[in-house]
Backbone:
């Protein structure tokens, strides 16, 4: 019962932080909202019994990636977002059309996917460091290496852009 209450609380925190992330006009405030999302997801991983994934979520995404985001925001000297004039159609029909899309997607998902069993908190055993390491270096070795090369290229691109900015 306590697990379910904690799950609901942190799921709501993640959703509210996600909406706040999109709706903020200041980039730093958006980055702080993203930290709220990452922290909530880490707690949800803990509730599901994936301690390694929860700590990796906090260290890698909540720490390192967010430091990079904040550094890029500071390097770009991004200020407040400028408001644009929205069309009258978007202002009137935007929310009802969004709700219709969400309802349609929910209906299609429930109709197409088979019924799932309920979640049992703490019963999943796939989140250990050994299990993730085995998967990364056997089944997912090629995607893991491709992602590492893409990250290296992104770092080199950031260095080149920073050099041009300094000159």
Residues:
């Amino acid at each position: 019962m306590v697990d379910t209450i904690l799950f609901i609380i942190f799921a709501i925190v993640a959703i509210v932080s996600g909406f706040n992330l999109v709706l903020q006009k200041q980039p730093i405030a958006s980055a702080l909202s993203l930290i709220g999302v990452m922290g909530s997801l880490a707690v949800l991983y803990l509730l599901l019994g994936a301690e390694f994934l929860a700590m990796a979520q906090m260290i890698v995404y909540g720490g390192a990636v967010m430091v990079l985001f904040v550094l890029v925001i500071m390097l770009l000297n991004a200020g407040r977002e400028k408001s644009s004039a929205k069309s009258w159609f978007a202002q009137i029909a935007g929310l009802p059309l969004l709700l219709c899309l969400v309802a349609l997607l929910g209906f299609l998902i429930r109709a197409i996917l088979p019924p799932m069993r309920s979640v049992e908190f703490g019963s999943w055993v796939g989140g250990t460091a050994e299990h993730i390491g085995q998967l990364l270096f056997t089944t997912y070795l090629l995607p893991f290496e491709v992602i590492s090369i893409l990250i290296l290229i992104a770092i080199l691109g950031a260095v080149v852009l920073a050099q041009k900015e300094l000159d």
Notes: The chain has six helices and no strands.
